[in-house]
Amino acid sequence: MKNKLFSYKKISIAAGIACLLFLLNSCDNELEVTPYSYFTSANFFSNTDQANMATLGVYESMSSRDTYGWYIPFVFDADTDILQISGLGSDDWRTIAHYQGISQTNALYTVWSKFYQGIDRANVVVEKIPQMDLYTNGTQNQKNQLNRYIGEAKFLRGFYYSELVRLWGDVPFKIKSSQTGDDLRGALVDRKEIYTQIIQDMQEAAALLPEETPKDERVNKWAAKALLARVALFAGGYSLSANGTMSRPGNYKDFYLIAQKEINDIMAQNPYKLNPSYSKVFKNQCQHVLEPTENIFQIAFFNPAGTIGNASWVGYFNAPLTAASSLYATTPGRCLVPKPFYTSFNAADQRRDVSIATYSINTLGNKNPLLTARQDESWTTAKWSREYQTNSTLERSYTHINWVVMRYSDLLLMRAEIENELNEGPNAIAYDAINQVRRRGFGADITGSGINITLGNKGTGYTAVGNVLIQITGGGGTDAAAAVVTLANGTIGTIAMLRSGDGYTSAPTITITSTDGKGSGATATATLLTKPTTTQIHLPAGLNKDNFLKALQQERAWELSGEGMHRSDLIRWGILSDKITETSTAVKAIRSNYFYPAVTNFVKGKHELYPYPQNETDVNKNITRQNPGY
């Protein structure tokens, strides 16, 4: 189980301290339990515990539903070719996702201000720790601790700025803490200048951070280098300029070289490895099992005593539609998956059924397939299903499931992309990196395989599909699921596989039961699926640069769907508009009224960035322009 970076006490103290060391924004009152008015930046940094608390305050800015517990990974990553938000309405989380957000949309300011809150807290830590007596005269252990805190603050400052630039482009920029009497109304600074500082911050952070595998959610050297590699790809990618055009730097390959160096440094030390089971990655997350060899950087969430705390909506907002039951708490099923993305998978790719729920979960805890009429428009993300969660009383409204910012497979796919770009085509390193990810996706390194189920006797007397349960036992595997799709005059008409599962070494036993006691006699049998060969799994040799990049782009979608970065990936590749148009054509081929509002609302040369929040521009007159199109 995870060692919580934040306990309720730590949240309260860290947030309370950071509020008093920071003047730019107000803090969340619900995190404050005891007043800390006697702490000031002048008299607070007197020992390592206080420095640690101040550093935790920098982390705390991202451990919120206002940032990575909701808005950024879910709302800000929709609507694309692989994910969209359900329904229409005036809620901020819908208008932003559906490309209808405007400068007055409050959630945009909420995210903006949280980032600047964290940046100013980081500035305090970076400035004040070197002024401590212990920093110069303490023991070596104390000096090491203090340098680590500086490294963490520099990394987080760089990370927060990289997110601001990713979402807004040019933004106000300062690396000095706010003091009484300061003019806090900064002008917009060119993102190129900001990227220079971000890269410097992350490089300096990596030099100060420990190499050891973390035991909690704090960043280490290798995570800093991995995130720096991602930042470099964004710095060298396409972004929307103030003149409304999409462009990338003329020297963009210089940034790819930075990313290559950082990834090569990581690979030389080999601190990471893929969990052989793709589904286990997300089960571990839902069960609060830290997996630092798979998850490079993650954000801590903790939901004390059922209160909001620094709680998350991971596994609530982005889970399959679930009715309240004795087994599971309810979820609204807000993160929808367009059907063309589902059909883009190879049927043997286990990531499809782990990532996409073609079912809902009813009040009995049974899966109801969504396979008739327009139900395919209700398919959702599935990686953080209530089935996998602890379902404790503390997590029925909010969860304390961590948000993973980067997994090792992401790093491998970045490596493949970088090598392809710098070598004008894929080399052996690029192929090996992407094929490692593909092998895991197809379950190649797990003994056994998935299964298929065939209906035998159709039985009699069944009353409703939701009351018929197909149970799968034995066989040595996990995760396979099937359900009844239709009934005909009390007999079972059709069944469907919802998940083929993995690890089955023999055919499991299939039992069909009725939860209402009505109906009997139906039977079914399972057979093992033939595992694909290495040749079938690996990308074909001899791809040119463009075709390898297209394969890489698709692989990132299959591997990382619903994990918060796809929309931004499409922007940095300059293909977001194209993908929305392609997806609209594909869903309209299914039915003319398929729900897909992105194609109507998206404007190329506008929606690649968000508008500067009006709450900010009303008071900061040094922001003299709005982002294009707003």
Automatic annotation (TrEMBL):
Residues 1-28 form the signal peptide. Residues 101-233 form the SusD-like N-terminal domain. Residues 364-447, 535-630 form the RagB/SusD domain. Its main location: membrane. It is found in: Cell outer membrane. The keyword Membrane applies. Keywords: Cell outer membrane, Membrane, Signal. It holds the Pfam family SusD-like_3. SUPFAM superfamilies: TPR-like. Belongs to the SusD family. This is RagB/SusD family nutrient uptake outer membrane protein. It comes from Flavobacterium cupriresistens.
